[in-house]
Amino acid sequence: METTKLTTEPACNTPWTAVTVTEEDIPQIAELERICFSDPWSEDVLRESAENPLYRFVAVKDGTKVLGYAGMFLTIPEAQIANIAVSPAARRRGIGRFLIRGLVREAAEAGAEVMFLEVREHNTGAIALYEQEGFVLVGMRKNYYDNPQENGFIYRRILC
């Protein structure tokens, strides 16, 4: 299994490393999608994303168990975080922050100048993390999410 550029950095102070998602990881990631999101990606969509050369898809694992994962579309000069989730049992251990920092670093190294993400307006935990990591609210998509219907906040971080 190939190790990605996402490595521990001193400011993050975590023991995590991220690996590129493989076919064997897809069922666990689909299960995390079902646990974490009201409108989860299917195994087929996850598999297609893992095979897409414009999509970077990484996981933090403990042995063979996926603790968290993140994915972004990298279309220079932009990057878009499409999904990020951490198992409820593994939360509050720095995995989400580690994944965000790694995606930001990888996008910048690849030449992206700006990164975007969308988040449900009532997901206060994620919003606090994104803002701590330098993302700024730049817009809103009215009724963007379903199950339940909710506005989507658009966040941006300038990378260079």
Structural commentary:
This protein has 160 residues and is of the alpha+beta class. The chain has one domain (18-158): Aminopeptidase. Helix content is 28%, strand content 36%. It is built from four helices and seven strands; from the N terminus they run βααβββαβαββ. It has helices spanning 26-36, 43-51, 95-110, 124-132, and strands spanning 18-20, 55-62, 65-75, 78-86, 114-120, 136-145, 150-158. Strands 1-2-3-4-5-7-6 form a seven-stranded mixed sheet, with helices on both faces. It is globular. 29% of the residues are buried.
Fold blueprint:
Layout: E1 18-20, H1 26-36, H2 43-51, E2 55-62, E3 65-75, E4 78-86, H3 95-110, E5 114-120, H4 124-132, E6 136-145, E7 150-158
Parallel strand pairs: 4-5
Antiparallel strand pairs: 1-2, 2-3, 3-4, 5-7, 6-7
